[in-house]
Write a structure and sequence with these properties.
The chain is of the alpha/beta class. The chain has 2 domains: 182 residues, Rossmann fold, CATH 3.40.50.620; 187 residues, Hypothetical protein af1432. The chain is built from 18 helices and 6 strands. Strands 3-2-1-4-5-6 form a 6-stranded parallel sheet, with helices on both faces. Helix 2 links the parallel strand 2 and strand 3. Helix 9 runs parallel beside helix 11 and helix 16 packs antiparallel against helix 17. It is elongated and about 90 Å long. The N and C termini lie far apart (82 Å). 39% of the residues are buried.
């Protein structure tokens, strides 16, 4: 049998890695390809934001698990200390006695091979396969490989496998900026966002696409209008526009769900709701929406809480909570008596706008003989008392 091994930190596994694996499968036709994430990479420092070993393994399963003939190996994850390649090859020779071991590496790795632990053993006991990038550096690599072949009496195979121009370091930095999703498979990116790996912030365009999948098409203009209004209010009052837009995009994400579906979400996220409270069913979406935004889309606690109170309000709201409450109320598609004075007030005195918005909501519900939640009355009293001093 021919066993190919592709090792690395996979921090995170990106489309370049996936492309390299396909090249190995298509050109070398191994009986099995082992993806070997390193527990502690010996040749470089792991970044401080590296997720736990089991999380990197889970990301590798999402990236490579669906490829035929590919197996995710935790061999190096179960060893203590640095993940030396020579130790890995020793273990593989025990696990696959008599089989040919192909060790796949990038150009940066072959150039530094002689600085590795026991390079002679590696060269003598595995056939090295080097992935050429298709860039000017390849000529330098070819010359170095020729030197190694002559010096050690081995044959090193070259494989043309152009990879992404971005390195894992660049991708991690991009994730922190709310970018980089186009460099990762959808499943890998979704998990990174959900688990807040690498300090990632969700890309706003990706988040819009996610939200639209949850929404009734008729609600999309309102939600996108709310997001835009939230950005304008954030810029007016000194809040983070990205956080405001994120909350606006996700604020109604569970609005289409039935009451039963909302209650299932409450169970999933460990929330206890007293359904005997009159009117509570009309505001369930703010609770479940906050839970989904935080649990599935990795938003900050500030964004989560802004979604949590965007329908009812509450006493002593944060600036972002007030912005989302009001953006939901006055976004451009809203058209009701009194909206224009409220719009104007939102950009003049945000606390006065909160008091007016809460009063209008309470009066509207009372006119319809609909129940008013106590938290909304408390919120109105808080803002009114604050104004009166």
């Amino acid at each position: 049998m021919k066993i190919a091994v592709y090792g690395g930190s996979f921090n995170p596994p990106h489309l370049g890695h996936e492309q390299a694996v396909r090249s190995v499968l298509n050109c070398l036709h191994p009986d099995q390809l082992l993806i070997m994430p390193a527990r502690v990479a010996p040749h470089k420092e792991m970044s401080p934001d590296t997720p736990p070993e089991e999380e990197r393994v889970a990301l590798c399963r999402l990236a490579f698990g669906g490829m035929e003939g590919v197996k995710i190996s935790e061999l190096e994850m179960h060893r203590t200390g640095k993940s030396y390649t020579s130790d890995t090859i020793r273990q593989l020779k025990q696990l696959y006695p008599g089989d040919e071991i192909l060790f796949v590496m990038g150009t940066d790795m072959i150039l530094s091979l002689e600085t590795w632990h026991e390079p002679e053993y590696i060269l003598a006991n595995a056939r090295l396969v080097v992935l050429l990038r298709g860039d000017p550096e390849d000529e330098k690599v070819r010359g170095h490989i020729a030197m190694l072949e002559q010096k050690y009496g081995v044959t090193i195979q070259l494989l043309n496998a152009p990879v992404l121009p971005a390195a894992s370091t660049d991708i991690r930095a991009a994730l922190k900026r709310g970018e980089g999703n186009e460099l990762l498979s959808p499943a890998v990116y979704a998990r990174i966002i959900q688990n807040r790996d690498y300090g990632a912030r969700a890309n706003l365009e990706w988040l819009r696409e996610q939200a639209i999948q949850w929404l009734n098409p008729r609600r999309v203009p309102h939600v996108m209008g709310c997001a835009g209004e939230a950005v304008r209010l954030a810029k007016r009052w000194g809040a983070d526009p990205v956080e405001a837009e994120t909350a606006g995009i996700l604020h109604d994400i569970t609005k289409k769900c039935t009451v039963q579906e909302q209650l299932l979400l409450c169970d999933k996220y460990g929330m206890i709701i007293d359904m005997s409270v009159p009117g509570i069913d009309k505001t369930l979406h703010q609770v479940t929406g906050a839970a989904v935004a935080y649990g599935q889309y990795g938003v900050s606690e500030e964004v989560r809480d802004a979604i949590r109170w965007h329908t009812t309000g509450k006493p002593d709201m944060t600036l972002l909570e007030k912005i989302i409450y009001l953006a939901d109320y006055i976004e451009p598609t809203r058209n009701f008596d009194g909206v224009e004075p409220l719009r104007k007030l939102c950009y003049e005195d945000i606390d006065a706008a909160m008091e007016l918005g809460l009063r209008m909501t309470i009066e509207d519900l009372q006119e319809k003989n609909a129940p008013v939640l106590e938290i909304s009355r408390q919120a109105y009293d808080w803002f009114r008392t604050r104004r009166e001093g």
